[in-house]
Write a structure and sequence with these properties.
With 349 residues, this protein is of the alpha/beta class. It is built from twelve helices and 13 strands. Helix 1 packs across helix 2, helix 2 packs antiparallel against helix 3 and helix 5 runs parallel beside helix 6. The structure holds magnesium ion. The site of magnesium ion has 7 residues, from loops. The site of magnesium ion (MG) has 7 residues, from loops. This is Dipeptide epimerase. Its cofactor is Mg(2+). GO terms for molecular function: metal ion binding; racemase and epimerase activity. Pfam families: MR_MLE_C (PF13378), MR_MLE_N (PF02746).
């Protein structure tokens, strides 16, 4: 068997500028990877590099030729373990670049077998969490409007970014605009441990479900301090990057927030899910701001999750790929009539 691979950078404008405690972005640069077999069947994946983890579109493009050469040398799109393992041997880190290739090869393998990827894994598509929709930092009035719009659009779960001196005002604005939604908050490392504990008390009074990454990932003892005193469950995101982090966070949080772009591939992501469960953690799958070229793959894992935060494409004004439908936040794998991840070019087939 032979495989051929190519890649392309896409710059996608966001519907609204997106701000978290670390900064603002107005567009998302992803790198789309396509792997084609000898019969002309193509699998697609996407890299959504995060500067926070040391990757940019340029670093992805720099390493992809070596990763794709490794895939072509394996030649068999069903040799998924071998392909991920060889890529990990090509380069340390660079997880978004490796993940794009892993997704494309998984998409191709499932397409060749004529089944959606979740079927290849034997997962039950009838029970899974709804995805949250994220409201970024903004003026209090804009946060109120965005929360009302999201609730009107039918999203049952909102995630609000925090980490400012206006955190109380922002939460109150969302609660006024959308009193019935399930609400989570994400501080993206912005709080001190003592500040975080204090905030969990009043967040609990406002019926918040859990708090994501309250303190710096560089302060594991601070995370433990918060976890032991918090009025709410704690999710670890920036503190939970690779498989080795799972045992390290197991006694410091309640929920592991995984992202495909942190793990480096779909097989590795499934290992993290299993490891998190083995350590008694609940599992959340989040995302970067991503095209459906990769979000569709994340959606295939949804039956394994307690919480889904797969709104990466929903935040885009223009995504060149369609993926798994998410009406009202409901991840509709059960309706998927396409083999593979379900990603396809807009207007294509
Ligand atoms: Mg987060």
């Amino acid at each position: 068997m032979t495989l051929e691979a190519e890649f392309e950078r896409v710059s996608m404008p966001l519907s609204d500028p997106f701000t978290i405690s670390r900064g603002t972005q107005t567009d998302a640069e992803n790198v789309i990877v396509r792997v084609t077999d000898e019969g002309g069947m193509t699998g697609v994946g996407g890299a959504a590099p995060s500067a926070h983890y040391g990757e940019t579109a340029a670093t992805v493009e720099a390493i992809l030729p070596d990763l794709l050469a490794a895939v072509e040398s394996v030649g068999d799109p069903h040799a998924l373990h071998e392909i991920e393992s060889r890529m990990a041997g090509v380069v340390n880190g660079n997880p978004a670049a490796r993940c794009a290739v892993s997704i494309a090869v998984h998409d191709l393998a499932a397409k060749r077998l004529g089944v959606p990827l979740y079927r290849l894994w034997g997962l039950d598509p009838s029970r899974m969490p709804a995805t949250s929709f994220t409201v970024g930092l903004d003026t209090t009035e804009r946060v109120r409007e965005k929360a009302a719009d999201a609730a009107d659009a039918g999203y049952p779960v909102l995630k609000l970014k925090l980490g400012t001196d206006r955190d109380r005002d922002l939460v109150d604005a969302v609660r006024e605009a959308a009193p019935d939604v399930r609400l989570r908050v994400d501080a993206n490392e912005a709080w001190t441990p003592r500040e975080a504990v204090e905030k969990t008390a009043w967040l609990a009074d406002r019926d918040v479900e859990f708090v994501e990454q309250p303190v710096s990932a560089d302060d594991p003892e601070g995370l433990r301090f918060v976890y032991e005193r918090s009025a709410l469950p704690i999710a670890a995101d920036e503190s939970c990057v690779s498989l080795a982090d799972i045992p390290a966070i197991a006694d410091r949080c309640d929920i592991a927030n995984l992202k495909l772009m942190k793990t480096g591939g779909l097989l590795e992501a499934r290992r993290l899910i299993a490891a998190a469960r083995a350590h008694g953690l609940e599992v959340m799958l989040g995302c970067m701001i991503e095209s459906n070229a990769s979000i569709a793959a994340a959606a295939q894992l949804a039956p394994l999750l307690d919480y889904a935060d797969l709104d990466g494409s929903l935040l885009l004004a223009d995504d060149p790929y369609d993926g798994v439908e998410m009406p009202d936040g409901e991840i509709r794998l059960v309706d998927q009539d396409r083999a593979g991840t379900g990603a396809r070019p807009v207007g294509g087939n």
